[in-house]
Amino acid sequence: xxxxxxxxxxxxxxxxxxxxxxxxxxxxxxxxxxxxxxxxxxxxxxxxxxxxxxxxxxxxxxxxxxxxxxxxxxxxxxxxxxxxxxxxxxxxxxxxxxxxxxxxxxxxxxxxxxxxxxxxxxxxxxxxxxxxxxxxxxxxxxxxxxxxxxxxxxxxxxxxxxxxxxxxxxxxxxxxxxxxxxxxxxxxxxxxxxxxxxxxxxxxxxxxxxxxxxxxxxxxxxxxxxxxxxxxxxxxxxxxxxxxxxxxxxxxxxxxxxxxxxxxxxxxxxxxxxxxxxxxxxxxxxxxxxxxxxxxxxxxxxxxxxxxxxxxxxxxxxxxxxxxxxxxxxxxxxxxxxxxxxxxxxxxxxxxxxxxxxxxxxxxxxxxxxxxxxxxxxxxxxxxxxxxxxxxxxxxxxxxxxxxxxxxxxxxxxxxxxxxxx
Length: 422
Known about the structure:
The model has no long low-confidence stretch (mean pLDDT 97). It contains ten helices and 27 strands. It has helices at residues 48-53, 71-75, 78-92, 99-102, 130-141, 217-223, 236-242, 265-268, 324-332, 360-363, and strands at residues 25-29, 36-41, 44-47, 106-108, 113-115, 123-126, 157-159, 165-167, 172-173, 176-179, 188-191, 195-196, 199-205, 224-232, 234-235, 256-258, 263-264, 272-273, 293-294, 297-303, 310-316, 343-345, 371-372, 378-379, 387-395, 400-402, 406-411.
């Protein structure tokens, strides 16, 4: 599919992450104004809250965009999702007769504050990247036992905290927790010394499923409204002490940062690719009816305080072993109900080479092989005031589909989180 030209010239520029082909969904405000819903187009945001109020956008059962966040529209179903894209395309395409009516509703992207684009109902994080799972398993169990016996049969995950999800740009405070080294007699309570990132993509559930009704992979794919970049901040030293026998808890509860724009699934259709060949056959309920992954280039950059950034990892979403649709279908297999606004983290996306690894745990091999930045600084794990930027884009025929940066800066730990006030 080639570039769809728009009357807004910035949307047609080479390298723009937000051409007419994309139309990602976000929530924004300007100055002290109210939060509105908007769609990124070129170097602008189209205020769809105001467009709907003006009667230029209309949906059955509307209004759907008059409350900040896209949950109401997502819950309205796939026909409404398609109607949104069709209406916006007609309003923004080159030679549109509606240009004069629409142009007053454009807001400069550079001057807007971006907020969480949807209300996160529940959050589940998976461990579904084979290269990441093998690397981590090798560090702790050796190559012969790197993958747990169930890993090639089941998308492994855990239920996280929806309250941990924040939008790009918010500072991340280094967490305190229980730490215990291999030679320590007792644990101690201290700031995490091995704070890390995880490069992921998050699937945003639009359509709910009822309690007690598992869905197929095809049904699950239809339930997904779109995708965001996701950084699952991870305190590896807290995790090492707490995760047995029930898995991650406080080590993953500090924060989960997502990019500010939901790229609708429809924008990614030209980039579908298949999951990799299976080493063992999956059970029938996880069978895929067609390609369920996407060819999305990803990168991670790290910038020390006051210094330029270094790209420390490049990989691709197609490296995942399980697709978001498989993860969602498995999530419902117990009869678990899914809700509009549920967020599924893919798990860390790593590739086969060192430069493809999606976490510092892998890049520094557990801290044993420090990473050297372009500035000459070295990193085993994150230091205070480090800024991390996740980026993603799908390369089309003369256009890009971008997600917007997923960024966070590490703030120093509190001096004493339990100090008495006053």
